[in-house]
Every structure is written in C-alpha cells, then in structure tokens.
Amino acid sequence: MQSGSKYPTLHWNEYGQAVAAHYNLQPSGKERYNGPCPHCGGTDRFWIKSHQGELKVNCNQCGDFKAIYAEMESDGVIPKPEAQQPMAIKKPDVTDFDDHTPYHIRKGVSLIGASLDGHTVVIRIFNSDREQVGTQRITPDGRKMFSKGMSQSGAFGVVGKPDSGTVYIAEGWATSVSVYMATGNPVIFALNSGNLPKVTKLLPDLFASAEFVVAADNDEPGIKAAQASGFKYALPPAGMDWNDVHAANGLDAVKSGVENLIAAGTTLEAAAREVAGVSADDMNFAMDSKGAIPFNHHNAMEIITKSEDWRHVFAFDEFAQRKMVMQPIPGSAGNPDKFSPREIKDSDYISVVRWFNLNGFLRANKNTVCDVVDASCHENIISP
C-alpha cells in the first residue's frame, strides 16, 4: 500500500493462502490466484498475487478496489484498517482486555470458519453426521460458551474445507486458524484436549481421502491427546500452542513447525526430547509436571555435553588455562570449514542463549548458560 493509505499493508505469507482458500481461488502462476470476485462475481476475473511480499488484489471486470476490500473485510479474511495487527503480535495479558475488541483480533487471526455477533466470535459446531449441533461463542476476554444443552463429546469445528490431502487437527479455533493461515490446509478443531481423541476416531470415516496430522498443544494434556489419536503429530515449543508460535514468530514459523512430524506412539519424554532438538539415548532430562523439558542447569548441561550438535563445541585448554570454542556454535553464521579453535568470548554465551531460545527454551538466560558452558569446558579437557 502507498504510504498514508487507509488500507493496511497485507503480507502475502499471512493472508495470501487464507484469501485464496476462502474464495476458492485457483493457482494461475507463482504466488498468483484467480477466481470469482468477492464484489461482482464472475469466474476468473478477480486475482490476488504476491508483490514484494505484499498481497495485491484486483478485478479486471469491476476494478472497484474499495468495494472489494469492503467485502473482504466483511468476510473476515483481512483486518479492518483500525484493527490491523502485524504478523508477529504481542500475546495479550489480562491488562489488555476490553469489552469490544473481538477475540480473533486479539489472537492475530482472520475470521475464518466463524462470524461476528457484535463483538463476539461465533463458531459453528458439528457432529459425526456433519450436522450443526450448536455454536461456540468467544467473548473479547476469551470466555468460551457453548449452546445450551449441546453435547461436546465427539463434536468439532472446521476451518477450511476438509476433503483430501493433509488435514490438521487442533484443540481450539484460534490455533486452527493460525495453522490454516500458515499452511493453506484445512483444520478440524476438537474444542479441547479431552475431546480430541474422540474426534480423531470419527474422522477417517468422515473424510476417507484425507491424511490427518495433529497440530498439538505442547503441554501434558495436549501431548497425551496427540498420542491417543494414533496419528502423526507436531509440537510447538514447550508450554505453547501454534497460535502462540504465530504470535511470537509469525506464520513461517508455524508452517515449518507443523511440518516437523513426530511418529504416532512416541512416548511423552521422547516427544519432549524431539521438540527440544535432542535425542541422545543417554540423556536424563528433568521433566516438569506438564511433561515438558524446562530450561534449568541440569537440562542445559545434558544438551551441551551429550547432544551430537553440542558435545564437541567447548573444551578447556589445560596448558594455556583457557576455555575454548573448538567448533562453530550451532546456529552461528560463517563458513564452518574456515573455523579455527579459539578462546571463548562473551558473545559466545549470547549465541548459546539465542540457540536455546530459538529451540523452545524461551526462559534460557545468560547466567545459567555461563555456568553450564564453563562446567562443560571442564568436562572436555585438552592438552595441546
């Protein structure tokens, strides 16, 4: 958009797939889709495309840019100008809530598979016969209410159009929309972790041509539900769901994350190891009550001294009495073939903290990392 335009800048990787899916647009080139115009109809006169990372739209028939945007805003696939949110958003806390900003705007997602009733998001809920049995209503403060008398057992909601190909399964609506916006694949949400295994038992009969993947929450109930589904599943970092990932790191992080699949039947501890990026058999992690691997001295030491990526990085030069970096720190820039062992610098500790942060340990801190790196050096003594 031009500077000063009242219309928000729309990023292709955030809205492109959602707009294409909502209006059933068909690919017509690289990052370009054609189909019926939201304003004037037709068959293929309307197009969207990516231009320098931004979503561009137009209709060769009506050319009514203002009307097209109004329709897209009304349909909830793009934000209204005053409601624009960046791709990576601040996760709201209780002090942010008011009684008029709708839930989907707070969560940074488009209004897909839902509608607005005033300031309340309304989502249709279905049963195993694909019949609507009620609704879920979510108020601006996140309270979730179901239709009176509606049975939640085996009920589910839908984002997109499940049929063939990969169909994701998630717990909640906002998480499902984040996954849909990131991947373009339909998502079925099971309302909560306890209901997810019940829903997954129904789905193969309802959508026989689909391949199901659980986009799980990374807490103990979420992991157990994913394991009980019998399907492959993907886990975000510890303590997060995929909407949290969207909020913290954007849709690209969601897309790459849900493609990192864990096999059905993987144990709780093995799943936690895998999402943490470590899998050595002799690691002895201290798990928290939710089944996740928290960041602490013990767990950081297990990773630094035992994982394949880290165990040869640090050493102690006994002759020179120096702590050494023996090979490139994982995730660091530069050509590893040109690396030469050197003394540890203060910036190396920051690089280690950054690696832990990017691999799901959001509470990693420099003080703990310094202790662990220094201790790991003395477990790998060299005498040049």
Shape: globular
CATH architectural category of the largest domain: 3-Layer(aba) Sandwich
List the helices and strands in order: HEEEEHHEEEEEEHEHEHEHHHHEEEHHE
Distance between the termini: 61 Å
> CATH class of the largest domain, anyone?
Alpha Beta
The neighbouring-strand order within the major sheet is 9-11-10-12-13
Radius of gyration: 24 Å
Q: Tell me the helix content.
A: 25-40%
* Count, helices: 12
The percentage of residues in β strands lies in 15-25%
- The helix/strand class is alpha+beta
Chain-averaged pLDDT: 83
Which stretches are low in confidence, meaning pLDDT under 50 for 5 or more residues running? Answer: 1-5, 83-96
Q: What's the structural domain tally?
A: 3
Q: Main sheet?
A: 5 strands, mixed
CATH topology title of the largest domain = Dna Topoisomerase Vi A Subunit, Chain: A, domain 2
Number of strands: 17
Q: Features of this protein?
A:
5-stranded mixed β-sheet; 4-stranded antiparallel β-sheet; Dna Topoisomerase Vi A Subunit, Chain: A, domain 2; 384 residues; 30% helix; 21% strand; alpha+beta
Concise account of the structure shown:
The protein is 30% helix and 21% strand. With 384 residues, the chain is an alpha+beta fold. Helix 5 packs parallel to helix 6 (220-229), helix 10 crosses helix 12 and helix 11 (346-358) packs across helix 12.
